């Protein structure tokens, strides 16, 4: 055990910090302990100065005046700035280093996008202003829509879905509405085993019954099993392409033709569109609907979990059912917002309705359009080529130390898939992931897709340099060697973090979701 | 190509290491007829930072921003002052560019913010617990109806006439696909909310009653009475708050008996943004814990016994339960929740109350001023910062005429209720702390000209 390895890791690099003295503050230099705002605040304090405005002496609130102010802690501005700055330093972020997260795609977030999104003409306009006062905002929507249609080879796009999963819902509701218009009841949607969990959840939310389709040995949809199941009860299929094993579904056109011949529709989960943008148009492969996660392909920031944005491109068959509202540009260059009142007049009488209050994630549209214009058609093509190149480079550099179950079945696309096969007894993917944190990287996607035991999905993206990718490879190689050798220090990783392994079971067994005095 | 670090030499080295001659060899699984030979036709090539900024600046310049004109719009999106420190802090790269906090050891910053946010939201709404946010108020409203269906095993929900019509439309869209039955009442311009009619409609089949507080016309419904009536029939009361600043002065819906309280959090820290991203608030009674949609952050301990935070109860979620999940949502409005939480930390309860008093005072001044315009009458007796006025002619025409004078003069009810002619002359007016006496004077003068 604990033998030195080829990457330079030595046994004495194991457990750290065992003899550190305690401090009264809990702080260790820049290793910060931050109290909750509820523990920092003094009653009645606040950090906003108000104008000495008239405050009406007699409120016109009926009988509903509250008896006491809400029990919320207030802090002064310097306390707030320190609290959140200190908290921010306990986060890993793409500005600090790579997130090699397969199927989640974390790439550099250009600050020009942020600057543009904050222009008053975009950030400070109301969704219900008269349309003649928001022509520029509406043109942002139509320009972005035009790019999305051209890049996907699809004739229509619904811009309002507020995230990828909301986009899936939009696509399936279009399918439901199209079937209803045809007078058909088709209760079943087919979903491959390797699909994102959102796919079956969305199909169920849209009122369909979900049936699984198995994967083949080479990590793709089993075409024979899928076509055998087609019939008059099948509304459609949901396929991810490139798929969650990192591979291109080379039979997608064949599948689409078979599904269409059987009267169904093809939904494509476009989460991994970043690997083919500018190279492949999903419309050419027979797709009827596909959502595009703007943060994944077009670099809008992830923000610690959101907000997202999930426009959905649609085939001619599904376009008539797209949701309201939507923006159009008339021949004379005037932008128009089509809502419930004038959908008929604009030739869109069959919309399935509205799926959110306003026009979608405008703040994400401005960022995505800025990014698209910066790259242009040539740059976007380079984006997908570099992303695919980086992923295949990682696959080739690591396949001798990490099991790569699909490496023999063709190049990977945006992400390289490995498994924990070959690790010492008791060592798993989780140990590699937590060890990667100590190496200064965010862990890769772990235990997904479910079709591979102990899966590790590594996606570098196009914004990593060769030198940076080589550092990631060196770290993964070292960790693989330690996992194979059964290095016990890996079991207690991470060591160099604000918190050691966090007890997730306790949190679920005794849920504590709010702070109490 | 300033975002792409690989050099041509890097690419050649890497292709050689992989063992292929050219990049298209890596796209060999794409059918040849589907692979584009060059960049996709009809789209322009890349542009410099300066050129892109100029283009986007021109588009931004085609909009009349709320801060550049007397501004009186509300109806679910509100213009409030955002302290400079809010935007500064959310732009810190460690927040802005962080991933979903699935690796808690290196995401305690985001996780602690979410735990604080959940506590702030629960206290503001008067509920036991709250989640870590949803997309926006309208989708949160549907999620509440769907949750009431799961809790009560009943499918019929009553949507009151005062509920935002876009929230009604969103719920109706979803209900068509889930076999829920929504009884959507029509809005009426008859003084204060018709709480009696709502109560009379509740029966033993009712899953939930959905009441907006204050409602779309600015009226303040009697939540306690409706809650009692709903609960007497085994139904839930869902309260919808589109203007959380109102809760600085109005009793919290949870304290008045609401079982689920949802809201739009845009007012605090988020900004107008032409409709999104916004922030869905969701709080409820603790007994519904395992039926909540969306993400939850919980307190726990790390291996050394220190207080830590982690995403929890994921057995409700789509990545575990797949088609049996409580919702298909797999994200939240994380950055908007952060902005809300920072703004709320700056305000505290005392600051929120002060802000609410100023809002209400401005609205009273606005109501008194427009009531002096010949032909204009104020509908509401009680209101917070928005109210409805009845004009002598179609309000859409009036608002367009005001826009020609660079005044953004409220939301015409005809825009929200295109198919209800009886509401065409109604205009929803809103005032906030941003509304000046000069703005009010300008509106009154312009109304006198255009009416």
Structure description:
The complex is a heterodimer of chains A (517) and B (451). Chain A is of the alpha/beta class and 517 residues long. Chain A has four domains: 28 residues, no CATH class; 52 residues, no CATH class; 258 residues, 3-Layer(aba) Sandwich (Aspartate Aminotransferase, domain 2), CATH 3.40.640; 128 residues, Aspartate Aminotransferase, domain 1. Chain A contains 14 helices and twelve strands. In chain A, strands 1-7-6-5-4-2-3 form a seven-stranded mixed β-sheet, sandwiched between helices. A three-stranded antiparallel β-sheet of chain A has the order 10-12-11. In chain A, strands 8-9 form a two-stranded antiparallel ribbon. The longest helix of chain A has 37 residues. The two termini of chain A are 49 Å apart. The relative contact order of chain A is 0.14. Chain B starts with 7 loop residues before the first helix and ends with a helix. In chain B, helix 9 links the parallel strand 4 and strand 5. In chain B, 37% of the residues lie in helices and 13% in strands. Chain B is built from 14 helices and 13 strands. In chain B, the strands form three sheets. Chain B has a seven-stranded mixed β-sheet with strand order 1-7-6-5-4-2-3, sandwiched between helices. In chain B, helix 5 packs parallel to helix 11. By secondary structure, chain B is an alpha/beta fold. The interface between A and B is large, with 198 and 210 residues.
């Amino acid at each position: 055990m604990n033998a030195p390895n080829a990457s330079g890791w030595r046994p004495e690099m194991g457990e750290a910090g065992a003899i550190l003295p305690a401090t009264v503050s809990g702080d260790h230099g820049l290793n910060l302990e931050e109290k909750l705002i509820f523990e920092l605040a003094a009653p009645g304090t606040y950090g906003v100065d108000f104008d000495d405005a008239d405050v009406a002496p007699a409120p016109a609130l009926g009988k509903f005046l509250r008896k006491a102010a809400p029990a919320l802690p207030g802090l002064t501005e310097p306390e707030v700035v320190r609290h959140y700055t200190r908290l921010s330093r306990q986060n890993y972020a793409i500005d600090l280093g790579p997130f090699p997260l397969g199927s989640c795609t974390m790439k550099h977030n250009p600050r020009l996008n942020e600057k543009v999104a904050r222009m008053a003409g975009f950030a400070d306009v109301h969704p219900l202003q008269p349309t003649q006062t928001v022509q520029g905002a509406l043109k942002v929507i139509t320009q972005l829509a035009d790019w999305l249609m051209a890049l996907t080879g699809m004739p229509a796009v619904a811009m309002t879905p507020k995230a990828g999963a909301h986009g899936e819902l939009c696509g399936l509701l279009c399918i439901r509405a199209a079937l209803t218009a045809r007078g058909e009841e088709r209760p079943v949607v087919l979903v491959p085993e390797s699909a994102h969990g959102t796919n079956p959840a969305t199909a169920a939310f849209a009122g369909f019954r979900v049936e699984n389709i198995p994967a083949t040995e080479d990590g793709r949809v089993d075409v024979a099993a899928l076509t055998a199941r087609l019939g008059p009860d099948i509304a459609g299929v949901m396929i991810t392409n490139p798929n969650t094993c990192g591979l291109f579904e080379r039979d997608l056109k064949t599948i689409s033709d078979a599904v269409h011949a059987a009267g169904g529709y093809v939904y494509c989960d476009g989460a991994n569109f970043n690997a083919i943008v500018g190279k492949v148009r999903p419309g050419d492969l027979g797709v009827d609907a596909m959502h595009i996660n703007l943060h994944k392909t077009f670099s809008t920031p992830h923000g610690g979990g959101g907000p997202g944005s999930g426009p959905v491109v649609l085939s001619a068959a599904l376009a008539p059912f797209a949701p309201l509202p939507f923006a159009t540009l008339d021949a004379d260059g005037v932008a128009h917002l089509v809502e419930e009142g004038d959908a008929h007049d604009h030739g869109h009488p069959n919309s399935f309705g509205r799926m959110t209050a306003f026009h979608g994630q405008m703040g994400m549209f401005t960022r995505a359009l800025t990014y698209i214009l910066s790259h242009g058609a040539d740059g976007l093509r380079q984006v997908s080529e570099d992303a695919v190149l980086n992923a295949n480079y990682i696959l080739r550099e690591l396949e001798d130390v990490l099991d790569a179950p699909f490496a023999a079945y063709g190049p990977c696309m945006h992400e390289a898939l490995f498994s924990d096969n070959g690790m010492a007894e008791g060592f798993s993917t989780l140990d590699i992931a937590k060890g990667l944190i100590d190496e200064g990287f965010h862990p890769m996607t772990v235990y997904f897709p479910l079709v591979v035991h102990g899966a590790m999905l590594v996606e570098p993206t196009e914004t990593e340099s060769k030198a940076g990718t080589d550092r990631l490879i060196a770290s993964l190689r070292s960790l693989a060697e330690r996992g194979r050798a059964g290095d016990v220090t890996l079991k207690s990783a991470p060591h160099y973090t604000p918190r050691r392994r966090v007890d997730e079971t306790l949190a679920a067994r005794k849920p504590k979701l709010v702070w109490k005095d | 190509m300033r975002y792409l670090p690989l050099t041509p030499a890097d690419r050649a080295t890497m292709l050689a290491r992989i063992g292929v001659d050219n990049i298209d060899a890596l796209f060999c699984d794409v059918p040849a007829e589907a692979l584009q030979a060059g960049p996709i036709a009809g789209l322009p090539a890349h542009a410099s930072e300066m050129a892109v900024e100029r283009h986007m600046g021109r588009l931004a310049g085609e909009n009349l921003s709320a801060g550049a004109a007397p501004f009186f719009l509300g109806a679910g999106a509100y213009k409030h002052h955002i302290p400079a420190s809010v935007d500064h802090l959310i732009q810190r790269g460690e927040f802005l560019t962080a991933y979903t906090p699935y690796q808690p050891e290196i995401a305690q910053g985001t996780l602690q913010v979410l735990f604080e946010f959940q506590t702030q939201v629960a206290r503001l709404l008067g509920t036991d617990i709250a989640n870590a946010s949803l997309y926006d108020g309208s989708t949160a409203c549907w999620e509440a109806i769907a949750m009431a269906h799961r809790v009560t095993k009943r499918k019929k929900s009553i949507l009151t006439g005062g509920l935002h019509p876009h929230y009604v439309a969103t719920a109706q869209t979803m209900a068509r696909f889930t076999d829920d039955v929504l009884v959507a009442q029509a809005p009426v311009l008859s003084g204060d909310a018709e709480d009696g009619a709502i109560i009379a409609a509740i029966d033993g089949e009712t899953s939930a009653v959905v009441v907006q507080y204050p409602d779309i016309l600015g009226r303040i419904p009697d939540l306690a009475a409706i809650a009692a009536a709903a609960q007497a029939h085994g139904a839930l009361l869902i309260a919808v708050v589109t203007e959380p600043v109102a809760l600085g002065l109005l009793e919290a819906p949870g304290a008045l008996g609401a079982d689920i309280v949802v809201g739009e959090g845009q007012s605090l820290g988020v900004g107008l943004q032409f409709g999104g991203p916004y922030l869905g608030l969701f709080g409820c009674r603790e007994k519904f814990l395992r039926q909540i949609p969306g993400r939850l952050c919980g307190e726990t301990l790390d291996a050394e016994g220190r207080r830590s935070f982690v995403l929890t109860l994921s057995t409700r979620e789509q990545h575990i339960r797949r088609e049996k999940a409580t919702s298909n949502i797999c994200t939240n409005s994380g950055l908007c929740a952060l902005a809300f939480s920072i703004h709320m930390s700056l305000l505290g309860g005392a600051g929120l109350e002060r802000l609410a008093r100023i809002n209400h005072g401005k609205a009273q001044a606005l109501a008194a001023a427009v009531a002096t315009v010949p032909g204009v009458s104020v509908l509401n007796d009680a209101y917070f910062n928005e109210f409805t006025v009845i004009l002598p002619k179609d309000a859409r025409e009036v608002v367009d005429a005001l826009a020609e004078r660079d005044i953004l003069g409220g939301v015409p009810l005809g825009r929200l209720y295109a198919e209800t002619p009886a509401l065409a002359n109604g205009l929803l007016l809103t005032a906030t702390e941003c509304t000046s006496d000069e703005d009010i004077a300008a509106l009154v003068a312009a109304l006198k000209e255009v009416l």
